[in-house]
Amino acid sequence: MMGFGDVLSYPHNIFLEILAEGGVIGLLLFLLAVSIGLWHLFSNRAVSVFSDPVRLTVLLMFVNTFMNAQFSGDLSANRLLWCTIGLMAVGLRRDLSPSR
Which helix (H) or strand (E) element contains residue 21? Predict the structure, then answer.
């Protein structure tokens, strides 16, 4: 009604957006989640990420959604990024289970 249209004033960068909404603590928590996910993804020395198709798929999903998050609207629109971080962190921990 005011003629402004539907324009979001969010920065189109995931780091700037997290800094704007969560501050330094939010950015540190985001970096902690990403680093834990990458550590779990690359932690198995027996199987390389590039030789295991499941690990490679999760890594490529993360790279794709992370690059998309650099140009998208707001944090809630990046649900797939949060899902891939979760997949990296806990979805691939099946390697630690004892074999039967």
Answer: helix 14-42
